[in-house]
UniProtKB/TrEMBL annotation:
The keyword Oxidoreductase applies. It comes from Streptomyces kanamyceticus. One of its GO terms (molecular function) is FAD binding. Transmembrane segments: none annotated. Residues 5-345 form the FAD-binding domain. Keywords: FAD, Flavoprotein, Monooxygenase, Oxidoreductase. This is 4-hydroxybenzoate 3-monooxygenase. Coiled coil: none annotated. The keyword Signal does not apply. Its EC number is 1.14.13.2.
Length: 394
């Protein structure tokens, strides 16, 4: 059908686009390689910025967040054995909402598929794109039950298939540029079946390596430990993980950490990339498919939502009203925030990793940045604005 949009990938980006299309009665098919059970349980992000919550709320997609999320308005830096609370809520007037990604995905699948009767096909195989630079674009895939090859003719494709999908790979190399940044740092990402041991996010800056504590709900906590890139998670036994967390997050008067079973333990090599432009013919990328921001500043899911809100509205204008201006401006509009957040992640990485870098120059500049954060009102306000996410893009 000529007005139909194919959304590839049912993560936060794809599901938000699909819900916006469905709410405007624009035909849409979502293709997802995994099962519904799998995507509703995949643990990842947990912090949604207030502007994103408000935007979802206005569209009626934030019921779960409003009912269950806890609001955070401060974070804590621990270094040299001391605790320093940073009250970004007071400085910016905005908060984070702690809402694990699987809960958001579950809410968005329910809203799209169960409540609005949207078409979502799970477990599809070998998704391929055709004629993206023509006016007869199409997507083909293998049906998991029949093994049949199916083809959907469409008006446009939303490429929301994450960092390892097919849509970015289908862009002709000569039509896009890919900017990359490798931090040369690894993070052991841990999910512990344990209640949080602090009321806010904790960043531990320690000569042995960075460590972090982030609530994921009343019984679940995410921890990070800086490690060598490519390290084997099996090198990290239960005892080693908890002993290292205790050491790196230790500070005068800090609550002892509550231990718990580690239900996720994987090594992330910290790197970023940005694809420019994010559109090619009838294909428009959104979220991790277009750009990756290492979880250093917890920006990835928020950027995915930002893209999806812009792209969803632009697709509705195009398909329902024949107005293509939103789609033409989509890539530039999305990239403004992408680059702000990428820059912030890089800046923040220097703060978090300087102490453990083994380089006295980096350690000195990281300490200078921290002192400025706690000693200068204007520096603190600028940091708070980026940390919680701007209302407007620069
Ligand atoms: P995804 O969530 O990756 O969704 C893409 C979907 O496409 C998936 O369901 C996938 O199965 C599907 N797919 C893949 N290939 C195909 C294909 N060929 N055909 C069809 N479907 C396909 N971000 C934050 O904002 N805050 C945080 O605190 C945070 N913490 C994180 C912690 C960890 C450990 C990790 C790994 C990430 C974290 N992030 C965080 C980043 C965040 O999870 C991602 O940025 C976010 O998931 C991006 O959403 P997306 O919809 O673009 O992609």
């Amino acid at each position: 059908r000529r007005s139909l949009v194919v959304v590839i990938g049912a993560g936060p980006a794809g599901l938000t686009v699909a819900n916006i299309l469905r709410a405007a009665s624009v035909d849409c098919v979502v293709l997802e390689t995994e099962s519904r059970e799998f995507i509703e349980q995949r643990p990842r992000a947990g912090f949604v910025e207030e502007w994103a919550v408000r935007a979802l709320e206005e569209r009626g997609f934030a019921e779960g967040i409003m009912a269950r999320a806890q609001a955070h308005h401060e974070c804590e830096f621990r270094w040299a054995g001391e605790r320093h609370t940073f009250r970004y809520g007071e400085l910016s007037g905005r908060r984070h909402f702690v809402y694990p990604q699987p809960l958001l995905v579950t809410d968005l699948v329910r809203a799209y598929a169960d409540r609005a009767g949207g078409d979502i096909r799970f477990g599809v195989r070998e998704v391929a794109l055709h004629g993206m630079d023509t006016d007869r674009p199409a997507v083909s895939y293998t049906d998991p039950e029949t093994g049949q090859r199916l083809r959907i003719d469409c008006a446009a494709v939303a490429g929301c298939d994450g960092a390892r999908g097919v849509t970015r790979a289908s862009l002709p190399a000569e039509r896009v540029s890919v900017a990359r940044h490798d931090y040369g740092i690894g993070w052991l990402a841990l999910l512990a079946e344990a209640p949080p041991s602090s009321d806010c996010v904790v960043f531990g800056l320690h000569p042995r390596g960075f460590a972090a504590h982030m609530a994921r709900g009343p019984r679940m906590t995410r921890y990070y430990l800086e490690c060598t890139p490519g390290d084997d998670p099996d090198n990290w036994s239960y005892d080693r993980v908890w002993s290292e967390l205790r050491t790196r997050l230790d500070a005068a008067g800090a609550r002892p950490l509550t231990e718990g079973r580690l239900i996720e333990k994987r090594v992330l090599d910290m790197h970023n990339y940005v694809v420019e432009p994010m559109s090619y013919g009838r294909l428009h990328l959104a979220g991790d498919a277009a750009h990756l921001a290492a979880p250093i500043a917890a920006k990835g899911m928020n950027l995915a939502l930002h893209d999806a809100l812009l792209l969803g509205d632009a697709l509705v204008a195009h398909c329902a009203r024949g107005d293509g201006s939103g789609l033409r401006g989509y890539s530039d509009a999305a990239l403004r925030r992408v680059w702000q957040y990428e820059e912030f992640s890089e800046w923040f990485s220097e703060v978090l990793h300087g102490t453990s870098s083994g380089d006295p120059f980096k350690a000195g500049t990281a300490a200078a940045r921290l002192r400025r954060l706690f000693g200068s009102q204007s520096a603190a306000t600028a940091f708070a604005d980026l940390y919680i996410g701007n209302e407007v893009d620069n």
